[in-house]
Every structure is written in C-alpha cells, then in structure tokens.
Amino acid sequence: MTTEPVEPSPGDAPPQPAAPAAPPAPPVPPQPVAASDAIAPEAVAPDAVVTGPPGAFAPDLLAVGPEPAPRVPRRPRPVLLAVCGLVLGVLGGGGVGYAIQAQRPPTPLPPLQVALPSYPAATVDPTAFAAEQPQPLAIDGDLRKLLLTAPEGSKPWGENPDKPSWVSTGDLAEHTGDAVREFKDLNSRGFRRAVEVDWQKDDVKYRVSLIQYAPEHAGEAKSRATVFRTQPFEKGANGGYKVFDQPNYWSDSKDPYYYGHAVAQRGTVVMEVEIFGAKPVTSNAVEDLAKQQWERLI
C-alpha cells in the first residue's frame, strides 16, 4: 500500500453554497419637469401617436436638425426689365394712338376723278409761242460743208489737210505752243468736234478751222472767241481779228514768221482763221479771209 495522498477529482468536491441575492433598489420617484423645458401640446404633430403615459412623450428636437434659412429674393435683371419696358411702351403707345385715332371723325377720301385741264379762251399768238420754244442748234450737220476750200494755185502745207477734214483734239493741240494745256482745255470744256483745211500760196501759209462745243457748253465757245482784244471784221460778228507786228519762231526749225489771227463765234461753233507769213501780215488779208468764212456760217 502506498501512503501518497491522492488529489480529489472535481466530481468528488462538495457543492458550494449559492451567494445571497442583492436586495432590490427602492423605486426612484420621477423628477419634476421645469416649465421652460415642458413641451407645448402644439409642438407635437397633430397626427403623432402617443403610446406612453401623459407627460412621458418628449420628441428629440435636435435630431430633426436646424430650420432652413429663408431664401434670398432674386434681383430683377436689367435686360429683362428693359425688354419688358420696351414691350409695355409699344403696347401702351399703340393703345393710346388707337384710342386717339378712334375718337377723331373720319376723313373723307379725295375724289378719284381729277378736274380736266382748262385752257385760256384767248387765241395764242403763233409767233410769240414759237419764240418761247427752245431754239435748235444754230449750226449742225456736216461741218466740212461750211468750211472754205483751198483757192486755185495753192499747194498743200506739209502733212496738214489741204481739203476740209475732221480733226481731233490732239491735232488742234499740236498747233499751239503748249500742246498739253490745249489738249486738257479742249477735253475739259465740252469739246464736241472740229474740222480744218490748210494750204500754202507763195510764202504765206493759211489755216481755217471750225471748232464746235456741246450744247450745254456754248459759254465756252463764246469765251474762246472773245478771250483776245480784237478789232471787228464784220458787223454782228461775235469776235474780231488781230495782226502781230513782232515775229514768232517755229518750234521745229526756229525760223521766224509773222502772224495774223481772226476768231468769231456763232452758237456752239468757233471760227478761227490763221495766216503765217515770212513778211508782216497785212490786216486786209486777215479781214477779207475772215469775212469769207463768216458768210458761210450765217
């Protein structure tokens, strides 16, 4: 037999006595609710269901959240106000105009049939009536038929036309010492057309030309005929003649020549007669030739 002690098993241990239960706590009386913390009956939603005894329902107001801030009113836009004002102005003006026009009496329309023209009972003088009408051009048609022809025994003068021929502004401008200025003047002052004839007899050269302006530039024709102080060669002729004592010089050969010139105007046509001589030109020669050409124009 052994003498070592044996450990008792858990099943062999005697049961432990249960601990005595704690006495129950006395009931705590309900705390009184302050008047400021009391919830008014109106604060509770009318459709809320109260399941507890009176005074026990206390909704949590903080759980609902803060009240939303009031919405700031939108300011009116200037463009919208302008458009509205314009529309209202048009409508208001139209309404006022319609009201004013509706109050006015109707205006009768003029008759559709106008009065017939009336004529004086007195008879019209045919002569006076014809004098009041616009006068036709004094000279029209083929100007070459009105120009003098070269006399017998004469010969052509270089390349110049020895028979009545049409000439241009360039041809007329080349006859002067300042061709550029003459060309501009003719084209800017209503030049219409021109004819010319040239011939040479002995040592004297002759040139006769007719220059016509447009009807609305008849004043230019008169100005060309009266620009120089001349002596009259015919009664009623709007122009005259002049003889120069001092010689001039040809531009191509530098030879001297004496010059005689006659000019006259009838209507829109300017007549020019020029004589170039190696000796001084007599006034009778210029005057006689100018009379012959003038007689063909009247």
Features:
single chain, alpha+beta, 298 residues
Structure description:
By secondary structure, this protein is an alpha+beta fold. The protein has helices at residues 61-64, 78-103, 126-132, 169-174, 179-188, 218-225, 283-295, and strands at residues 165-166, 191-201, 204-213, 238-243, 248-249, 256-266, 269-277. Strands 1, 2, 3, 4, 5, 6 and 7 form a 7-stranded antiparallel beta sheet that branches. A hairpin with a 2-residue loop joins strand 6 and strand 7 (269-277). The longest helix is centred in the first third of the chain and has 26 residues, at 78-103.
Helical residues, percent? 10-25%
| Helix and strand composition category | alpha+beta
The major β-sheet equals: 7 strands, antiparallel
Integer-rounded radius of gyration = 65 Å
User: DSSP helix count?
Assistant: 7
Shape: elongated
Spans of at least 5 consecutive residues whose pLDDT stays below 50 are: 9-14, 33-52
Find the count of extended strands (DSSP E, 2+ residues).
7
Topology overview:
Layout: H1 61-64, H2 78-103, H3 126-132, E1 165-166, H4 169-174, H5 179-188, E2 191-201, E3 204-213, H6 218-225, E4 238-243, E5 248-249, E6 256-266, E7 269-277, H7 283-295
Antiparallel strand pairs: 1-2, 2-3, 3-7, 4-6, 5-6, 6-7
Nutshell version of this structure?
The protein is α+β, with helices and mostly antiparallel strands and 298 residues long. 25% of the residues lie in helices and 17% in strands. It starts with 60 loop residues before the first helix and ends with a helix.
